[in-house]
Specification:
Layout: H1 6-14, E1 33-44, H2 60-70, E2 76-82, H3 85-91, E3 97-100, E4 111-117, E5 121-123, E6 132-133, E7 147-153, E8 159-167, H4 175-189, E9 199-204, H5 210-213, H6 219-229, E10 234-236, E11 245-246, E12 251-252, E13 255-260, E14 264-271, H7 288-294, E15 301-306
Parallel strand pairs: 1-2, 8-9
Antiparallel strand pairs: 1-15, 2-4, 3-4, 5-7, 6-7, 7-8, 9-13, 10-13, 11-12, 14-15
Helix pairs in contact: 4-6
Length: 307
């Protein structure tokens, strides 16, 4: 299936009017099973460095082959740190997928992108205008990232899922900013709870442990506390792996899923790639340095759910 240009697609999507459409959701579990993957691709479009440029970006083929070989059958990708969204869509993302993002005036903005397989359709939240939660951009769209959100319809025209893709503020010292961003997400979701749409909030949360931040609890625990205090029906999907991020000098657990309680986990989060491996696999995807140079510093994380 030929994919249209993402920016053009987004413009067409954002201009569609839903006032005359009925919000139709399933009244019982749809039983559909979906595989979701969150993946931060380090400064994609700049060759992996904020100081790079388009000519230095040589990972397209590596990434395309990696997604095709390792993630065949994936229904949803949630990408972060994408500088060149059109390049991602045209050169990397499987051709049977459609993607959703937004616009920024900052030429080196790190976009959040959601892509879904063509058997599903994006559907705008009734009353929403642009599929972004602007309040998550705490210090302005040109610096931090908004959250991207969408409803998903199946082939019967039923709304079966709500997706929220995030890329929260980085560094241990920004723990308070991250909690404000999560609070904005919770405020957005709280009035939508009555619709009982299964909801996934996923992406790069830039979570650190309490030792790193100097706070009373780890970031992910404090994020869950925000959702609970706001009475938003989300719990973190437990991830037994130690790391989702591996650079030549650091390892951390940054990429996570929060799921509503009306979602069944079929396969729990799995971290792909060398982030947790002690093997070297020199010159292959199992080699941390090779993976860092040709793919990313983040490892993709997958989860399989049933609605």
């Amino acid at each position: 299936m030929k994919k249209c240009s993402l920016l053009l697609w987004v413009v067409l999507f954002s201009c569609t009017t839903f006032a005359d459409q009925t919000f139709k959701t399933t009244t019982t579990r749809s039983g559909e099973t979906l595989k979701l993957v969150t993946f931060n691709i380090r400064f994609f479009g700049l060759g992996g460095s904020m100081g790079g440029d388009a000519q230095q970006e040589t990972r397209d083929k590596h990434l395309k082959n990696y997604l095709a070989s390792e993630f065949s059958g994936t229904d949803v990708f949630l990408f972060q740190e994408i500088i060149d969204v059109n390049r991602l869509v045209n050169n990397v993302v499987p051709r049977d997928m459609n993607c959703l993002s937004y616009n920024s005036q900052n030429e080196k903005h790190q976009y959040v992108v959601i892509c879904i397989t063509s058997k599903y359709k994006f559907y705008k939240e009734p009353g929403d205008r642009d599929n972004v939660i602007d309040e998550v951009s705490i210090d302005g769209l040109n610096k931090s990232r908004p959250a991207v959100h969408t409803l998903v319809k199946n082939s019967k025209g039923e709304v079966i899922l709500r997706l929220v893709g995030v890329h929260l503020k980085a560094f241990p010292s920004e723990y308070a900013t991250r909690l404000k961003q999560v609070d904005a997400i919770a405020e957005f979701l709280k009035p939508l709870e009555k619709r009982a749409v299964p909801t996934v909030v996923a992406g790069d949360f830039n979570t650190f442990d309490a030792k790193s931040t100097g706070q009373r609890a780890d970031d992910n625990v404090m994020i869950s506390n925000v959702f609970r205090q706001k009475k938003v029906n989300l719990v973190e999907s437990p991830n037994i792996y130690d790391y989702t991020f591996r650079s030549p000098s650091h390892r951390n657990k940054l990429d996570r899923f929060w799921l509503s309680k009306n979602i069944k986990t079929v396969r729990p989060p799995k971290v792909h790639g060398p982030c947790n491996d002690i093997r070297s696999g020199k010159g292959s995807l199992a080699d941390p340095q090779y993976f860092y140079d040709n793919i990313s510093d983040h490892c993709p994380v997958s989860v399989t759910i049933q609605l």
